[in-house]
Write a structure and sequence with these properties.
Layout: E1 4-9, H1 20-30, E2 34-36, E3 39-40, H2 45-48, E4 55-56, H3 61-71, E5 74-75, E6 78-83, H4 87-104, E7 108-112, H5 122-140, E8 146-149, H6 159-166, E9 174-179, H7 180-185, H8 190-197, E10 201-206, H9 211-217, H10 237-244, E11 251-255, H11 260-277
Length: 278
Amino acid sequence: MSNVSFGINLEFIRHQDKPFEWGVQKAAELGYSHVEPMVHLGRELLSEAGYFHSVSMLDDPLRVKRACDAAGVKLSGLSAHTPLCKPEIGVEYLKQAIRFAAECGAPVINTDEGPKQPWTTEEEDFVLMRYTLQEAAKVAEPRGILIGLEPHQQYSRSPEGLDRIHGLVKSPAIGINFDTGNAYLCGHDSLAWLKRVVQRLVHLHAKDISGQQSASERGKVTGTPVGCACGEGVMDWAKVVRLCRQARRDIVLSVECGTVEQAERSIRHLQSLARTAA
């Protein structure tokens, strides 16, 4: 039986106008054991000014490690979403994210196929995705970094579509970063889909969906940036945790919510489930 830990994607401070290090410290204060930073290429004004949490991959990767060590938390992975369908972006982005992860100590990088070009066919897109993933896998394998494919966009919005992307490249480095909220909003049974991929699971985005968002968006969208507090929406987190314990490796449930207050309520709910199950 695999261990399950509770982490948080730093999107929870997106509206706080605070830097990366502040978010890591806040996550630790709330009781999370892991964090999932977001990384970007080049330089970005708000991040450089200390008003946004994303970290440039031109920075020293040890900046990330030092912040986590100082707060007493670990890295669950890096949020490294880039369009696999656009290799002119995705190839170099993923290769750099993998090298960055290896040096800062993040075991997983998470991504999805991203928005496609309007002029490419589905057949062409899958060739492009295979190229991108093959190039990324060649860099990930010798470094022991895992690539988590997430259901989020046009082709991964169904179990069959995500399986097809996962099967494009045969590599031990490529697994699944399951997103409970995205799967639900696509119109699927999140638990059934999670059970389908649990043996390929490398990371999980713990995203709950409010009743209001469910009523207005389910079946109409392929995903959402963040959800509500875990325990205040439609997800059965006790069942999610039980399924994750069937994975082949230890799994971090990385909460994706939009505010510090939601993050606090989420960890309280998840920790109460863990105590009950123990």
